[in-house]
Structure formats: C-alpha cells, structure tokens
Amino acid sequence: MTDELTADGILTDDGNVTLLDYVDLHGQPVHVGPDRVIFRDEHGHELSDWSAALGADRDGLSATMHKLAREVYQPDEPGDPWSRADPVVFDADTFRRDNFEAIAMLLRRGCSPAEAFDLFATTDQRWTQTDWGEWRGVSQQNVSGNVSDGRDALGEN
C-alpha cells in the first residue's frame, strides 16, 4: 500500500479502490472538485482505518480532514457543517485515474463519448438518469438514449 496524505487529502495507489467503493459505504460524495473528493464519515470508521494505514494520529488526521474540507466545501446546514460527521477527503487524482480507465474501456469497446459518460455515470457511479441529466444540462430522455445506444454498442441489449 502506498497511501499518503497530500495537500489535497488521501492519495491511494490501490488499484482496487474506486469511487464506487466509497459510494457503497457513504452514499454520493458531498463534494467533488478538481482537487478533492469529500465523503461524510458518519461513524468515524473510515478515518480510524486511514489513520492506521497512514501511521497517523487519529485526532490529527481528523483535524486535517476538517481543514481540507472547509477550504472547499460548506454544506447548507446551520451551525458547524461537520459537527455530526467527519469529512474524509481524498485527492481527486485517486478517482480520476479509476474513472478514466473505466470510461476508456467503454470507448475502446465502441461507445461514443456521450454514451460512455452517461453509461458510466448511471451504472458504475449509480446516478439516476434524471439527476445525471440535470447535472449535465440535458434531458433524462437524452441520457436514456445514450445509455441504450451504449448498451447496444457493447452488445448488452
């Protein structure tokens, strides 16, 4: 394991770690930016595991995560945004690498760029077609068509 704490959060070279693993544990990330991906750690387990993996003090790692999260994200909640959950902040490069490889595979298998992105977002990342369409600025029908055409290109329909 070559995990390290960078200026933008935890960077991991573990090829088995993907954004989907963290979505399963914590739901959708609360923030995805160019440098950082932030999840809520409602029960504190993730930070405990990471402090052990990094050989870092748990309280010190928690303070660092809070600082990194507050620099880029303030939830629309009254009071301290992280009073009920620690943020777990990952260097966005960890997830970009995994996402790029998955999308590249869809492109190599015959999907158009729009089909690959829509298929990846609505299957691997578990966005609803409606939410993904809103985020992309297109209709749910547009996303649905791309997903269907992408599945055709992959021989799945």
What would you note in describing this structure?
This protein is of the alpha+beta class and 157 residues long. The protein has two domains: 4-92, no CATH class; 109-153. Helices cover 54% and strands 13% of the residues. The strands form two sheets. Strands 3-4-5 form a three-stranded antiparallel sheet. The protein has a two-stranded antiparallel ribbon with strand order 1-2. β1 (4-6) and β2 (9-11) form a beta hairpin. It is elongated, with a radius of gyration of 17 Å.
Layout of SSEs?
Layout: E1 4-6, E2 9-11, H1 19-26, E3 31-32, E4 36-41, H2 45-54, H3 58-72, E5 86-91, H4 92-108, H5 113-124, H6 129-136, H7 140-153
Antiparallel strand pairs: 1-2, 3-4, 4-5
Helix pairs in contact: 4-5, 5-7, 6-7
Features:
157 residues, alpha+beta, 2 domains, three-stranded antiparallel beta sheet, two-stranded antiparallel ribbon, 5 strands, elongated
